[in-house]
Amino acid sequence: MSGTPNWQGERAPRFDVAGVRGELHRLHDACHIVADGDEVGAVCGGRQTDGGGFELLASVAPFPSDMLGSAAFRDTHGVRLAYMSGAMANGIASEELVVAMAEAGLLASFGAAGLAPDRIASALDLFESKIPGRPFACNLIHSPAESGLERATVDLFLDRRVRLVEASAFLGLTTEVVRYRVAGLERDRDGGAVARNRVIAKVSRPEVAELFLRPAPREILDALVAAGRISVLQAELASRVPLADDITVEADSGGHTDRRPSTVVTAAVLRLRDRITRELGYPSVPRVGAAGGLGSPEGLAAAFAMGADYVVTGSVNQSCVEAGTSSEAKELLTRAGVADYAMAPAADMFEIGADVQVLKSGTMFPMRASRLRELYRTYDGLDAIPATELSRLEKDVFRMSVDEVWRECLDYLGERAPERIDRATKDPKVKMALVFRWYLGSSARWASRGETDRIRDYQVWCGPAMGAFNSWARDSHLFPAENWTVAEVAEQLMHGAAYLFRLRQLGATGAVLATALNDYRPAPLSS
């Protein structure tokens, strides 16, 4: 190299691609791009002294991953990164997953959807024991067919002082999600409203986002006051705050999804948030996060570049060691590509035609579930289905007679929704829906439990993010999948997103770097 290196600091510039990559990874230090004749290199930390030596081409400030997103999100929830592991129903977002994230200073939502209150209470006991005072959320899913379960879940959350819920799959506001939010309102010393119960609302449509961005509707508040479930003061304070503190815009995700492009719906909700905040003059601006399709650093970086205050991952966490699903399901997930997914009927909203996105590769569930929906739409009851078709269902799909399936439905409904048994005895269409929903619900449990004789019927909620993650992480220390921990996945994705932001910052100064540097791959972060 020509000239005399006049660099004051712990390191000299690096000029080989591997060395430059290593310097760019030092996100907590300022980064300098230098030239030595025709060679371009990088160094982080230190400064160039006067005199000969290297030509300084560009410099950028430190940009660690904790600078991505909203500081208000981090401060409000007491976490290090503007990142959240979203809820996966039936405890797939398990207690172990939540504890691991909390111990790493990160936020995770327990997958309470589909679980009975006593099972959720057991999880809360564990959180009180393992992570007292640390951040976590619990999922509150809209249950149109089981309103009693939604109410019992909110009763439990209020009784146990759960301070953060992730509200998902809401098509509109319900009394219970309003009650949870408003029951935590108090007046501060200045007469303002303090919300002890925080809500992160996961939505996929601007019209639903607007419901959560505005204060609770007067008619629901009046009904709650009349029933003695909130106070008059709480109803008055509710007019001063939005129903949710954070709005997660869900795009092409696993599970319930409208599969809308993130760039379209997130931008629309950001504009909506800004308009409503100006209109109502909120003292604190509700935050907007992005979810769906986030399985690589590029995806996270794009979400933050769009203006997302935080990001939420789901599918990629389902294959982590802490996830509450079977090794068989995890193996299917780790083999998935970016196109191995399909839409299938949702068990909890079967009658209204709602869909969930699931893994297609390695399972026949999407095809079989779609056939059940066709039969439901075509016939008025089980007795109306042609005998050959019904026999095929019993042999290939149910693997038991319709009568045996119905007996299992009666056992289940007797505990959770006995009123639906009466409806089914009067309406053959209702009975048919419940029998078909038995298969839809059971298929998720078979996958979670790893029932190998049912592997072709596994329902695994998943989206293209899983394929993106597999493509990115393969050939790194993260494979095989037994090495994936939910906290390291979070750290790797966020570190990679910050690394890519650093490259874009340098590019904006006019620095031209080797294209090979754009491909950030997971590496042990301690190195």
Can you tell me about this structure?
The protein has 527 residues and is of the alpha/beta class. It is 42% helix and 15% strand. The strands form 5 sheets. It has an 8-stranded parallel β-barrel with strand order 6-7-8-9-12-13-15-16, surrounded by 7 helices. Strands 3-2-5 form a 3-stranded antiparallel sheet. The chain is globular, with a radius of gyration of 26 Å. The model has no long low-confidence stretch (mean pLDDT 92).
Summarize the structure.
With 527 residues, the chain is of the alpha/beta class.
Compute the separation of the termini in Å: 27 Å
**What low-confidence regions span 5 or more consecutive residues with pLDDT below 50?**
none
The total of beta strands comes to 18
Strand order of the largest sheet: 6-7-8-9-12-13-15-16
Which percent bin holds the helix content?
40-55%
Which overall shape is indicated by the principal axes computed on the Cα atoms? Answer: globular
Strand content: 5-15%
What's the story with the biggest beta sheet? 8 strands, parallel, barrel
On the 0 to 100 scale, the average pLDDT is 92
Q: Quickly give the structural class.
A: alpha/beta
Radius of gyration: 26 Å
Number of helices: 19
Topology:
Blueprint (H helix, E strand, L loop, with lengths): L6 E2 L8 H8 L6 E6 L2 E6 L2 E2 L6 E6 L10 H7 L5 E3 L9 H9 L3 E4 L6 H14 L6 E5 L5 H13 L4 E5 L6 H8 L2 E3 L5 E3 L2 E6 L2 H8 L4 H9 L5 H6 L8 E5 L4 E2 L5 H19 L6 E5 L5 H10 L3 E4 L13 H8 L6 E5 L9 E5 L5 H14 L8 H12 L3 H15 L2 H8 L1 H22 L15 H9 L12 H23 L19
Parallel strand pairs: 6-7, 6-16, 7-8, 8-9, 9-12, 12-13, 13-15, 15-16
Antiparallel strand pairs: 1-4, 2-3, 2-5, 10-11, 14-18, 17-18
